[in-house]
Amino acid sequence: MSKLQVEVLDSKIGMPALQVAIDDKKMMLHSKYNPVQEAERFIDSLRDKIEEVDHILFYGIGLGYHVKYFSAAYPEKLISAYEPIEQIATISLREFAITEFPKDKLSHYIVEDTQHPVAQNMELLSELIHQKMLLVVLPVYERLFSKQTNEFRKTLKSFLMTKGSNILAASLFSKRWTINALMNLPGTFKHENIIIHKKKFFKNKPVILVSAGPSLDEELGNLRTIKERGLAYIFAVGSAAKALVQNNIYPDAMCTYDPQPHNHSVFKEIYEQRITDIPMIYGTTVGFETLQFYQGPKLYFVTSQDQITPQFHKGKIPVISDAPTIALIMLQIFHALEVKKVYLVGQNLAFKKNRYYSKEVKRFDYEKNEFTNSSIQNQDLINSFEVEDVHGGKVMTNDSLNRMRLDIEMYIDFANMDVINTTNSGVAIKGANYQPLKQVIENELTEKVVVDGWWKSLIPAGLNELNQAFKKRYEKEFVRFIQSDKELENFLDDCKQSLLSVAENQIKHKIEYLDKLFQQYQRNVFFQTTISPITKLAFEKLNAEKEIMSKIVSCKEKVKRAIEVYGTYFTNCRAIYRDIAPIISKLIVCKIEGQQEKKIYGCISGVFHYIGNWKKKHYMIEKDTKSNINISNSEVITRDENAQIAFRFTGTTLKIFGLVYSTKPSKIQVIIDNKVNIITVKSNYRNNKYEFFINKNLFEVNDLEDKMHEVLITFLSDNLTFVFEGIEIGCKSRAYHMNEVITVDELQIGKKIRCHYEADYDVVGEFTRLGEESSIFIPIEASPYPNGDFYFIMVDYINGKKKLIADRNVQSNISWESLQKNNKGLVGVYATKINLLNGGFSCNSDNLISNDWDKYVLNSNEDFNIGIISSWCSNNNFSSMKERYKYITIRGNFYFLDEKVNVPSYYGVTPSINKASHIGFRPMLLIE
Length: 928
Description:
Elements: E1 4-10, E2 16-22, E3 25-28, H1 35-44, H2 47-51, E4 55-59, H3 65-73, E5 78-83, H4 86-94, H5 96-99, E6 108-111, H6 118-121, E7 133-137, H7 139-144, H8 146-188, E8 192-193, H9 194-202, E9 206-210, H10 220-229, E10 233-237, H11 240-246, E11 253-256, H12 268-272, E12 280-283, H13 288-293, E13 298-303, H14 309-312, E14 319-320, H15 326-337, E15 341-345, E16 363-365, E17 370-372, E18 384-388, E19 394-398, H16 399-415, E20 419-421, E21 432-434, H17 437-443, H18 468-498, H19 504-522, H20 525-534, H21 536-549, H22 555-593, E22 598-602, E23 609-611, E24 615-622, E25 631-638, E26 644-651, E27 654-662, E28 666-672, E29 675-681, E30 697-701, E31 707-715, E32 720-730, E33 734-736, E34 740-741, E35 752-758, E36 766-768, E37 787-798, E38 801-806, E39 811-812, H23 816-820, E40 834-835, H24 852-858, E41 870-880, E42 885-892, E43 906-911, E44 919-921, E45 924-927
Parallel strand pairs: 4-5, 4-7, 5-6, 8-13, 9-10, 9-15, 10-11, 11-12, 12-13, 13-14, 15-20, 20-21, 34-35, 41-44
Antiparallel strand pairs: 1-2, 2-3, 16-17, 18-19, 22-32, 23-26, 24-25, 25-32, 26-31, 26-33, 27-30, 27-32, 28-29, 28-31, 35-36, 35-37, 37-38, 38-45, 39-44, 40-45, 41-42, 42-43
Helix pairs in contact: 1-3, 8-22, 9-15, 15-16, 18-19, 18-22, 19-22, 20-22, 21-22
């Protein structure tokens, strides 16, 4: 290492100047004659570049003459200073009284030393990613410290690129992380935490972490031995679970955390085979579709991207740091479980024999636009290079795989874990010595350690772990958030209106009050846990803009910029609110509460008879064509005076929920058993900023006689918009449609009867309990695993038999081919065959008017929920000999796929093997 000496000399004008000696070779850091003038000329030469940016990062400060001049010449610019030489920084601060170095005007003053290396210092400059920045290097540093200067440039560039990549990932996934955490929350409280509840099974026990690298194929025999003898717990990550199952090796657990909607497809072969005895360990932010498709046992862990679950949990809960690979996630879990040793299998992190994955894995090739085998693709070879393998040779990898290796090495070192890499021809992983798996079995895995059925729940369902106090606070803050936002919006509008007339001395007060309102806004628990994590990037941009605003001299310009900057941020938050709010109010609150003390019937459940002009609005909350499940929501709206809702119910209590939007208080009449109640309702917000709320209780009665009641709701005011949300009754009560009957003998045309349906994925299930209320209703967008009620509506008499058609699609993600295997009917005394509707053979065919769909569904006054998804029909239009499948008629609506095609009369054809969320099974039957 070179010897460095720094000396302070007097310049010709009497100001100090630094002289640096490196290995006795001396050089001036500043001009010997006039260091002040030299600094001014240097800054003036950069004038054009400076004008284009907001933030200047000075590298190489010396005594700071150029920084001092810059701060005086450009008071509106942000300044950060980085001094790589500790000795120079010490002298600079010592000479402060003379040089007047403006340290107090800097956003950051960073000194590099052994305790604060360059990589660590980068984190202090993270806001630069959101600002227009110019790096200014003092020219003499380029000559004296060229290696250090180049290293800084390289590190800064890499940091900003990585930061940008992380920001991109956060912007892509942040909304998904939160939506997934919310959607998974009710189920999470029914499952056990892998760390809290199962640690005793894994502590001081060996575990095998199986990844889907190309070397996995060589170890299948060894893994079978380990599994059969119970020598270690086998955890499969990613596609490794599929590879093992295809070879008849069931891992002790399969692990997943990917938030993307198509993550469930990794386990497609497993749930299609209806395998339900492999426990799934999932991160709480995993794509919620994954948990809906897989019906086997589940255990969870909380990821750091989930700000919701830990708050709803009564006690302290372990949190696993988010990571770019599931293998690293599992290493953290193993560390928390205090396992004895981890053995890596199939962790190649490199290419092998022209393959990227194990041979069982199929990959999507974006160039070919199709699924192919596990071979290397052209995109894999971008930025590929050689690294050392476990045998001391060379193997090809790429940037993505290599970053995973570095992350794993860093964690192994940090956690001081005992890890063995058994991956033949994989990359060498520092801290994980190589040892063949066969040798591990012979020398280390010598006795059974696996406890059969370890995953079985030993505690009651997890509602006893729910933090009820936080849940109540969360619901209250959810409503208050709108009020806070409205107050901020009004304040910003007022500032904008008064900007031209407001006095300068009032502007400071307005900015201070804006900060106060914003702090109140940020303290909202709903905002902190739900909105803030999604808008993290926008918040970082807001803070970066606030730094720039602090340099604006004109008070009016400062307020004008504040209105723009804060307004943009709040608009962003409102957009997130509109997406998240219905998930909370319609889907989550009721489910997490359970139904022990109440029953809730939503507006589209089927029990309500709507009279007058009502419009059913069905919309997507979360839409992704790569996913087979979407989050949707519905509401029923009227703008007509005298529009009505009728229904019946048994029990003693009733609550009616809805929203009224009007310029004045509105009157609603509720008649229960001929007793008239008139209620006056104040208007709610209704504009493009606020769309959804927690159910608002419009009417409540608690002292009715315990019998059947008839209810008629009438809207008496004009110029209103009423959104009906549903009702709540007691847990032992039941609601009925006005035309509902409970026996087949009572059925007439136009009458409906309740039925229960339960099925597994892609298989026709059981129709039972005709006339009974068995459970909640099947959602009108259907489900791949239905287990609920629906209505059969009688539409005709055919040869003395009653013809019934379901009021909804009862099952999605089921192919026409699977429906043809149906030999099921109604269970019980009404044994009969379930059929599909005839939908016609062509949209121009004359027989369209005589087919079941057009005759009974499209031209009916009954509510068949046809504006949601399409229905399979019985018509085989034509066959493709080349593709070896048939093309089948589908009728209804392609709302999920293309919002432009949103007509209930939609006619189309699709392959008989198709399984998708936008095509469903609508049963029809003839019954004596």
